[in-house]
Amino acid sequence: MKTDVVDMIKKLVFSLALITLSGCTSLSQEECAYANWQQLGYDHGESGKAYNQGIDTVKACREFGISPDVALYKEGYNNGLQHYCKPENGFAVGIRGESFNGVCNSKQFRKAWEEGNDRYQIEARKTEINNRLDTINRRLEVISNELSAANVSSNQRRELTNERRVLDDERSSLRRERSLIPLLNKLPSFRVEYEL
When you count CB atoms within 10 A of the terminal residue's CB, does the N or C end of the chain come out lower? Predict the structure, then answer.
């Protein structure tokens, strides 16, 4: 009786470890010995991992003389993939900036991913613009201080003035682009599909 409880606790601990480590590329001998193949498959599917990548991880257990139950793994994987391939998850994956990995054959998932990814790209561009504007403003401040110095040669003054003009133009362009970004969030997403 006590041995059964200890074995059950060991299996539970190793199952939890497998869930935690399901993103890893290989399993230890102990993890292979106590693996819940269906749960491992579910975790891989739910995380959007490609089937071949997951099955390679599972088949690596054969190195330890342990035969994985591929049928249970596949059943769990397909169930997990159903959860991953929901459109709302597609949007979440896209808005996090994760790439589309092609494991879902759902047009709704792809469309939701594209909408999320569009939002991600907009936010990333806004951050990029703000960072560049900060850099430009700091440099313009330095240029202004250098131009105010009494010991600036005429060549240095000309170079600094030209640099200031270029940076002012870039800053105006970036500010204009940044002012249009809120409009991009209101536009519907669209894609052009074509066949080669």
Answer: C
